[in-house]
Predict the 3D structure of the following.
Amino acid sequence: MSKTITINSKKYEIDVPEDMPLLWFLRDRLEYTGTKFGCGMGLCGACTVHVDGQATRSCVMPISAVIGKSITTIEGLSEDGDHPVQKAWLENNVPQCGYCQAGQIMNAASFLATNKNPTDEEIEAAMTGNICRCGTYQRIKKAIKSAAYELAKEV
Amino acid sequence: MDTNVAAELAKYENNSAPNNKSRRSFLKASTLATGGLALGLHVPSFASTNVENSDFNPSGFIHLFENGDLVLYCGRCEMGQGISTALPAAVADEMEADWSRVKVKQGEADEEKYGPQATGGSRSINVMYIPMREAGAAAKMMLVAAAAKVWNTSAENCYAENHFVINKSNQQKLSYGELATLAAKQPVPEKPALKSKDQFRYIGKALDRHDQGMVVVGERQYGVDTKLPGMKYAAIKHCPVLGGKLKSVDKQAAMQVPGVVDVIEIPRLEVPYGSVGGVAVVADNSWTAQQAANKLQIDWDLGPNQNYDTKIYKANLVKNVEKPAQVAFERGDLKQAFDSAASTLSATYTGGHLCHAPMEPNASVVWVRDDKVEVWASTQAPKSIQDVLGAYLERDPKEIVVHVMMAGGAFGRKFKCDYVQEAAAISNKIKAPVQLIWTREEDMRTGYYHSNNAQHIEAALDEEGNVTGWLHRAAFMPIASLFNPAVDRAPPNNLDVIKDHPFGFANLRSETGEAPAHTRIGWYRAVYAIFWGFAYGVFADELAHKTSKDTLTVLNNLYDSNKNPEQEEQVRRSKGVLALAAEKAGYGKKLPKNEGIGIAVHYSFETYVAMAVHVKVDENGVEVKNVDCAIDCGLVLNRDGATAQMEGAVVMGMSLSLHTEINFENGAVVNSNFHDYPVMRINEMPNVRVHITDSDERSTGLGEPGVAPFAPALSNAIFAATGKRYRDLPMKGVTA
């Protein structure tokens, strides 16, 4: 029986070596180039996707470990770019070069799904794994607080 | 509304020789193939002292379509600094275009169309701002002239507003789309009048970046995101030491990895932006290529730089600045100043190598075919790609098509196209499109580093503690070594900032100490300003401490002592940002124990930035609480972009001040990834407040100037909080 994985609600057959990390399956085998390569060691967060809703570093997650699971990439986070985190990112003009931002957004979205009313310290702790060399950290913090506020209103 | 338009058109129409070839053409118009207006722009090669040529060089295309869509091409490379929003917005403003109708496209490599495209030195706004505005204003005037023709009225009786031309007599409107094709046939105004500040619609406001919507849904395309049919993926292992050569490589294990197509040796290309040499693996995906590359058994002849050790080298730099060195410049009578000095003060400052480490490692896609070479690259220098690949592949550089992709950060590294040349070498061999992305390890170890550096300052002081003489020695591997390996120290003109510093100093000498290059040195965001700013900024604080004054007073005294009328503006504007930063930070107020505020100011890339840094230091380390940045860059194009640049400069400043240094042992870089090159993370982010000086001066750039004042302000803040003076970057192990 062939092994499959669901990505952004679509089923895909896994036809690559099973030790290939998910990142390259997404980028090279498929066409989900929104998720980025930054370090290859799980240190920078640029490769962050959701595995069954949980933020995961796809550059160190072998495909074998996510067979049958449901992956969400930045392209699938929302229908029209209208996830509260995405909207907050635009309202606060967060991105500069933008390369790290998919990972930042995915990490933030996963964090906020389980932590509705985070403190500053909790935000920092949750986001410390995501590096930004352009230095958009101040706006990331602001956007997360603003998205948390919106998400809390939705409840 | 636009009373200037009519006057300008009248002036032009009265001109008896619009096609006189002896007059330098400025703007050129044509009709788009599908109908509409295309306007090209003339830009001199360098706006300031180095005027290379003043031949006609059209650039910066405005494409107005018959449906009203407006495409503005940005010829300068976008890498996060926001130029692809700031400059097109300036065009749209002068053109009275509706920004929501604008699509910004990145210009491909074509300096005849876009003028100089090399993006660095914080020069894009300096060079392009006025020419782009003039192009926008000209387009508007041509649209007005077209409307006047349609209505059979005068241009004075019309005005342009937000994508329409309006008839003053009867309020009839014609849209820009409707007018586009006729506008293309109107005379092109030579020197169109520009808007005054109160008329700005977009300039000076806080504009959203034009493509941030694409970023948040993962649609923005970077150098590595291009997909082509039949494309292969490559990984590379570089020679770890500059000047080394491949002795042998055992490819067997690599070739046996399923999916590997080829292993290719790439010799060093001995031009400044050429490959250092390496061995590449080609496969059907980049992970397989990287895993296989790890299986290569490579034997290198490491070459002449194999003993380079930064610990030893930095110690030598210090020795070389603490004794007489080669004189770069002198004026006045320094000997007399020291002989008659009431006291002296001296200090030595050092800094380490830095690696750019943008989040996107070096990456490009290259397709070499018999009849075409095509590149998709994150780059800061499209023409360099054409030149280097043209020479390497023996093709006409102008024939090399370079699609300038969004760069995922650059900071100076992507000015050098060695990574593109490598992709070209691979594609040329396998006759297929190739994507080459460097691993983080290769990116960190195969850089063009910021120079490590040492400076020594000795000041002669009079009884009041005023500086009467200034001796300044510096030793650093210069960027010149990249272009001439025989250079054994920074050339004298690299120390011009000392002779030109706004402090003045009548009795002055600068000296350049021995610093031969053992690695490639390149421009790293703010370049030498990083260490000039550090030395000047900390030394001023040390002067204050020695003379029992506060640093703000001492800095003001230093500026005031400069009586050179040619530097009056630099003095005034430096003091201006200094006062603003100090005021906003509450400099001088009483602070809790273990807290301190440090200030510094630096003039670089024609822009003035001062920072006041507020820290708290305890047994756990240093916490940067607030940073107040004051900037004076003349007229600001995009207030939000300007603020973002300062926030980013603080983050970059924090990394280089506290955490990051590239070390070499046995000729090779020791660091490899973000665990041993620990750039700053979000948990350290201070509260950054940016204060923009309202100015009508000529607009200057902001990509780099914010970096220089941060490190000295931080060191001074730590001194204020703890009494401990840190003169070496990065400042490690800071505690109370």
